[in-house]
Amino acid sequence: MQQSDAFWNVTAPVGEQGQSLGGDLTCDVAIVGGGFTGLRAALMLAEAGTDCALFEAGDIANGASGRSGGQVNPMLPVPKPDDLRAAVGPKYFETLAEAALRSADDLFELVERYQIQCEARQKGWLRADHCEAARRVSQENAKLWNKLGATFEFVGRDDVTRMTGAQGYASGTVNTRGGAVQPLALTRGLDRVARAAGAKIFSHAPVGKLRREGDHWILAVNGHRVAARTVIIATNGYTDDLVPGLKRTLLPLTSIQIATEPLDADRLGPLCPEGHTISDTRRLIMYCRREPGGQFIYGGMGYRTPTGGIGGWSWLLKDAPRIFPSLKGVKWAYRWGGTVALTPDRVPHLFEPQSGLICGLGYNGRGVAMSLVMGREMARRALGAATEDLPFPVSSMKPYAFRDPQV
């Protein structure tokens, strides 16, 4: 197996040539982070005629956006509508629920509008119930969400096996609006269309310091001075200490994936034959998908080693053939990982710790769709939308209780 070689690098179109910051710069809006969130914000701002500049510490899509599972799941990971109401209050409950339920449709419409080549397919997302107790809870909660506009359908044990090739699941719920994209291709596509709209996008441009000076924010980038009236922070699981206290509102976790070589027809045939993306209800969840080229991708939770590497591969390699019998004996050709960001209430958070400083993050493993919603809404805010007109409440920053205060 190739170490740290993401399968997405093999099938994604080549990215745009990175732009270097050659001197000081003044703009209306500066965006920190070159993933889904930041690029979506840059696209909207540029199309509105705003002078915006985006700064990415590495290559575009270097973080979770280019390393994710690419599942487009139009749901927040809160079990019941009442949990969402408790998290955001009655004022924002309906608007955020609607934004989440529409998030997959919005993504696929965006891809179609800009003709982004990212293997987009809206075939549905199947969440498999690992036991009878999980089945009862899943169906009860799905019925509640359906009353708000979700499109869950219920399938039994035999249907789950037929639709996935997996063994041992009691039942499942299918969200018919879900789907998949090639995440690195989507990110690079957003980069391309944002540049074409007029956004300035700089790679290998880490923002080292951020301070207020009069009516501008001053960013230190590779020895240069960038002045902006508004700053958008779009760094999610890779958030650092640039904004004091922001990093501590999240709990970063490592998600890892493995991918096969193209499989022969006998092995591939049973695996997700209708094109659904799959996840399950176990505490240590798995997620998986079948690729157009005949590969199979399997993911789950990993961990960071003391030296900063990624671990957890042995569990993944044992779990995949246990659940999917046709994977026994296959050669796994790729493995890679990235960082997801959890919030205490399982809801993305929007912060404005100071005037003109907008921070949106915390997608809890559902970032492919919801990060684009957040990027759009932060752009709207930068363009002058009132906070009460956004689907997210503006929250106060509070540290995640289980996070080590020294980290």
List the helices and strands and how they pair.
Elements: H1 8-11, E1 25-32, H2 36-47, E2 52-55, E3 71-72, H3 81-114, E4 125-129, H4 132-146, E5 152-156, H5 157-164, E6 171-175, E7 179-180, H6 183-197, E8 200-202, E9 207-213, E10 216-221, E11 224-233, E12 251-260, H7 265-268, E13 277-280, E14 286-290, E15 296-301, E16 303-304, E17 310-311, H8 313-323, E18 332-342, E19 349-354, E20 357-361, H9 367-382, E21 394-395
Helix pairs in contact: 2-6, 2-9, 3-9
Plain-language structure description:
The chain has helices spanning 8-11, 36-47, 81-114, 132-146, 157-164, 183-197, 265-268, 313-323, 367-382, and strands at 25-32, 52-55, 71-72, 125-129, 152-156, 171-175, 179-180, 200-202, 207-213, 216-221, 224-233, 251-260, 277-280, 286-290, 296-301, 303-304, 310-311, 332-342, 349-354, 357-361, 394-395. By secondary structure, it is of the alpha/beta class. The chain folds into two domains: 8-69 and 184-249 and 345-395, 3-Layer(bba) Sandwich (FAD/NAD(P)-binding domain), CATH 3.50.50.60; 125-176 and 252-342, D-Amino Acid Oxidase, subunit A, domain 2 (D-Amino Acid Oxidase, Chain A, domain 2). Strands 1, 2, 8, 9, 10, 11, 19, 20 and 21 form a nine-stranded mixed beta sheet that branches. Strands 5-6-4-13-14-15-12-18 form an eight-stranded mixed beta sheet, with helices on both faces. The protein has a two-stranded antiparallel sheet with strand order 3-7. A hairpin with a 5-residue loop joins β13 (277-280) and β14.
